[in-house]
Amino acid sequence: MVQIKVAGMTCGHCVQAVTKAVHSVAPGVPVDIDRESGLVAVAASVDHNLLVAAIADAGFDAE
Prior knowledge:
The protein is α+β, with helices and mostly antiparallel strands. It has one domain: Alpha-Beta Plaits. Strands 2-3-1-4 form a four-stranded antiparallel beta sheet. A hairpin with a 4-residue loop joins strand 2 and strand 3. It is globular and about 25 Å long. The mean pLDDT is about 95.
């Protein structure tokens, strides 16, 4: 499992955009997003840097 801190998720659309970004790197893997804490958990062994880059390309600050 990979966990990423994402800033700027304020609505359901943001959650969908982040999920889509994760799926662009890891298609079909389960993604759990807690919008309040900004924590994104990806239930797969995916390179952290690739996920951060995809989420950043979607317009969010990720680390």
